[in-house]
Amino acid sequence: MEQTYLMIKPDGVSRKLTGELINRFEKKGFTLRAAKMITISEELAKEHYGEHADKPFFPGLINFITSGPVFAMVLEGNNVIKEARKMMGATNPEEASPGTIRGDFATEMSENIIHGSDSKESAKREINLFFPEL
Ligand code: IDP
């Protein structure tokens, strides 16, 4: 069964959206396989977002993602990588449709509530990075 890595970012956790978001994924029919609340180190953040190291928003992104606890999850189900991305909505909340997580709960790119793996390769890499015990 396919698995993906999801992470409720510090804005989503501090706004107490964790339960609401887990609820959405479970109601859809996906299974929560692993979950933990963690505060990410700068080192782990840089590794996770390595592909963006050259972007102008990188320092702000690292600062933000390490600013408070995140809720890290492994979600399992049919086509879960693509379906969870659909449920999250576009990266830029201004472009995310109502009914999606970012469309319903966010207004700006830098605080867009949730991360989700975008391919089989990144799902594998990110699950390994955050849940090496699995
Ligand atoms: P994704 O989270 O939808 O996969 P990515 O392009 O991988 O989107 O970007 C990772 C994260 O970096 C985004 O979720 C967002 O928080 C942040 N980000 C991306 N582009 C920008 C930008 O242009 N300005 C500020 N933050 C950005």
Structural description of this entry:
This protein has 134 residues and is an alpha+beta fold. The protein has one domain (3-130): Nucleoside diphosphate kinase-like domain (Alpha-Beta Plaits, 2-Layer Sandwich). The protein is 42% helix and 18% strand. The protein is built from 7 helices and 4 strands. It has helices spanning 10-14, 18-28, 42-48, 58-65, 80-88, 101-105, 120-130; strands spanning 3-8, 31-38, 70-76, 114-116. Strands 2-3-1-4 form a 4-stranded antiparallel sheet. The chain is globular and about 35 Å long. Bound molecules: inosine-5'-diphosphate. The site of inosine-5'-diphosphate (IDP) has 8 residues, from loops. Inosine-5'-diphosphate binds next to loops.
Tags for this model:
134 residues; alpha+beta; Alpha-Beta Plaits; 4 strands; 42% helix; globular; binds inosine-5'-diphosphate; metal-binding
Low-pLDDT residue intervals, each spanning 5 or more residues: none
Taken as a percent bin, the fraction of beta residues is 15-25%
Molecules bound to protein: inosine-5'-diphosphate
Number of helices: 7
In this structure, how is the largest beta sheet organized? 4 strands, antiparallel
**Helix and strand run:** EHHEHHEHHEH
Summed over residues and divided by their number, the pLDDT gives a mean of 98
CATH topology: Alpha-Beta Plaits
Number of domains: 1
Please give the share of residues in helix. 40-55%
**Class inferred from helices and paired strands:** alpha+beta
What is the spatial order of strands in the main beta sheet?
Answer: 2-3-1-4
Note the overall shape: globular
**In the CATH hierarchy, what is the architecture at level 2?**
2-Layer Sandwich
Distance between the termini: 14 Å
For the secondary structure, the number of strands is 4
CATH superfamily label = Nucleoside diphosphate kinase-like domain
Broad CATH class: Alpha Beta
User: Which radius of gyration do the C-alpha atoms yield?
Assistant: 14 Å
Keywords: ATP-binding, Cytoplasm, Kinase, Magnesium, Metal-binding, Nucleotide metabolism, Nucleotide-binding, Phosphoprotein, Transferase
Protein name: Nucleoside diphosphate kinase
GO cellular component, one term: cytoplasm
Subcellular location: Cytoplasm
